[in-house]
Design a protein that fits this description.
The chain has 2 domains: 33 residues; 186 residues, Nuclear Transport Factor 2, Chain: A (Roll), CATH 3.10.450. It has 5 helices and 4 strands, in the order ααααβββαβ. The longest helix is centred in the first third of the chain and has 31 residues. The radius of gyration is 25 Å and the shape is elongated. The protein is α+β, with helices and mostly antiparallel strands. The chain has a 4-stranded antiparallel sheet.
């Protein structure tokens, strides 16, 4: 009886140990395997092109990737000015992250950063704003505080905002309230980036000048 019980215990223990090994192997594999991204480029790009015919996807994608790489450098070196794109919103975001990490005693240091893939993930027009979201699959070594560096695979979103160029608007000394109406018939210009009034066919030149600006970076862990 004791021998049978011992054999059963041995088999159960062996099965548990085997399951633990499989689980550990799966965790290690996840560290090596890039995350999948929300690849909506084929669906989103035509929508952006309709609103902004001059939008250069390849240019902004390259800039988004360069910005993301510089973001990890800025956090690691605790120097917000290392960002490749220095909008006020991005600079403030990085400053706050560095401050919080110092206060918590958990400074982050990134190394061996690699971008596996970048795609368009979202395109939103609401509340007077227009946003394009790039999503990148990222792999890196992360050391927090005095701990050991660990490999991680994750996703990051970089948001591109269509904003008013206040400097150009000031040069024209015109009010923003009149920036999106037809100069001939007064009809609203409902499509951002339109060159022709859809009601009377008059050529439209935007009175206020607008510009694209990267203003947000965050880890997408859903």
């Amino acid at each position: 009886m004791l021998i049978k019980a011992f054999r059963n215990w041995t088999r159960q223990t062996s099965a548990i140990l085997q399951a633990m090994k499989i689980g550990e192997a799966a965790r290690e594999m996840r560290k090596e395997t890039p995350c999948s991204v929300c690849g909506m480029t084929r669906l989103i790009l035509p929508q952006i092109a309709e609103d902004f015919p001059e939008f250069s996807y390849s240019e902004f994608k390259a800039r988004a990737e360069t910005l993301l790489l510089s973001y990890f450098t800025a956090i690691t070196q605790k120097q917000p000015e290392r960002l490749s794109e220095r909008s006020p919103a991005l600079l403030e975001q990085v400053r706050q992250e560095i401050t919080h990490q110092r206060a918590d005693g958990t400074p982050h240091a990134y190394s061996e950063v690699r971008l596996h893939q970048t795609e368009l993930a979202d395109y939103r027009k609401q509340d007077g704003e227009c946003r394009v979201v790039f999503q990148s699959a990222v792999g890196y070594m992360l050391r927090i505080g005095d701990g050991e560096a660990e490999q991680k695979q994750t996703r990051y979103n970089v948001e591109l905002l269509y904003v008013q160029d206040a400097g150009a608007a000031q040069e024209h000394q015109l009010d923003a309230a009149f920036s999106m109406t037809c100069p001939n018939c007064g009809a609203p210009i409902r499509s951002l980036g339109s060159k022709v009034c859809e009601f009377c066919g008059t050529a439209v030149q935007e009175v206020n000048h607008y510009a694209w600006s990267f203003d947000k970076i965050y880890e997408f862990d859903k």
